[in-house]
Amino acid sequence: MNRISWLAVPDDTTAPEGVQKLHAKARANLGFVPNVFRAQALNPDTFLAWWNDFNTLVNREGHLTNADRELLAVVVSGLNRCVYCAVSHGAALREYTGDATLADTVAVNWRHATLSAQQAALCAYAEKLTLTPAHMTEQDLHDLRAAGLNDHAILEATQVIGMFNMTNRVSSALGFTPNAEYHHRGR
Predict the structure, then answer these.
(1) Model's pTM, two decimal places?
(2) What total of structural domains would you count in the chain?
């Protein structure tokens, strides 16, 4: 196996039961265990806590569509230059939209993608919150409302953007490498 983190990566067989169950679920759903799971299993309690938060924000029905949440993930990850998250969530965006061109374009520069007014507003919000969080104002929320988002969707978008900024920093700081399988998904 190629190196997937700059830290030690525990063996699947020695991981605690909760981690092994999550790995088994990933294998059943995706056909592989994401390297981010393997790498973070070094500290299983904090990994499982992160996963519960991540799963609650990203992998459920909510006020945004799955495609919108993945769009935010790709914008944030591209801006942060997080290879792991840009690749893995680019694959998810391709799968949710059926549009490889959209996902690839958003990963580089969302302004060059063909987006709805609401998607463009979400991307602009994600960019500002990621790059210049100290410059956020109430007007930013008005812009989202004008694009058709309600307060529930705005809160969810903000939480998703925050989650990906944190996850990008962990993944980049520790050299997480995306699984090869992600490069082919949704193409």
Answers:
(1) 0.95
(2) 2
